[in-house]
Amino acid sequence: MFNKQALTEATKELGRVVLLAILPVAISAIENNQIDFKVIGIVAVLAALRWVDKYLHETGKAIDATKPVKSVTEEPVTSLLTGGLTRF
């Protein structure tokens, strides 16, 4: 199932993570006069995992929003995707 809103929210999260990660990597590269590609690779992997986590979470929220609740006192059943990768 393709969810455009989940993809948009996950991509915004990816942009935030990359923007915040660029600063310390750039400072380190300027300070040492060389680019450490291991650090860039690690940052890229972490940003990608964060993107996947956010996409799964947003998709789970969209699935939960479509499920009807039978009564006020009934505990709603949530999708396993709502917790993302970490299930928090």
Query: How many angstroms does the end-to-end distance come to?
Result: 23 Å
**Rg calculated over all Cα atoms:** 18 Å
Proportion of residues in extended strands: under 5%
**Uncertain stretches:** none
- Domain module tally: 1
Largest sheet: none
Tell how many strands the DSSP assignment holds. 0
Number of helices: 2
Order of helices and strands: HH
The general outline is elongated
Q: Could you estimate the helical fraction of the residues in percent?
A: 55-70%
Kindly report the average pLDDT value.
83
Structural class: mainly alpha
Question: Quick summary of this structure?
Answer:
The chain is an all-alpha fold and 88 residues long.
Folded structure, characterized:
It is a single chain. By secondary structure, the chain is mainly alpha-helical. The protein has one domain (4-83). 67% of the residues lie in helices and 0% in strands. The chain is built from 2 helices and no strands. The longest helix has 30 residues, at 37-66. It is elongated and about 65 Å long. The mean pLDDT is 83.
